[in-house]
Design brief:
three-stranded mixed β-sheet, Immunoglobulin-like, 10 strands, mainly beta, 108 residues
């Protein structure tokens, strides 16, 4: 896989939303998911079912439970992956989903 050709998809995390709140990927295409926290609180990109449907180049970014990416204020993290299974997946910030910090990931 030529990771140098990975398509970058940026997601901004602010108090209390993901921008954009709809992410679309295609199976077999390399992506770099670039997460930036522009908010004043810690946010996480929690999508366990999605993480089970992709092959990761850098699984260490998911942390010890392999279910979420924690991003502190003014921090950015990248996840390099290839989607292997089509579907629709829920994305939440586990600490702020009650405030509407949710999104949808679709893999075609």
């Amino acid at each position: 896989m030529d990771w140098a050709k990975a398509q970058t998809v940026a997601v901004i995390m602010v108090n209390y939303e993901f921008i954009p709140d709809r992410l679309n990927f295609r199976r077999g295409v390399p992506y770099r998911l670039h997460l930036e926290n522009h908010g004043s609180e810690i946010h996480d990109f929690s999508a366990p079912e999605f993480f089970n449907a992709i092959e990761l180049k850098n699984p260490e970014v998911l942390g010890p439970y392999a279910t979420r990416i924690v991003v502190r204020p003014n921090e950015a993290k990248d996840l390099d992956f290839i989607a292997t299974r089509a579907g629709s997946y829920e994305l939440i910030c586990a600490d702020h989903d009650w405030a509407g910090m949710t999104a949808r990931i679709t893999v075609e």
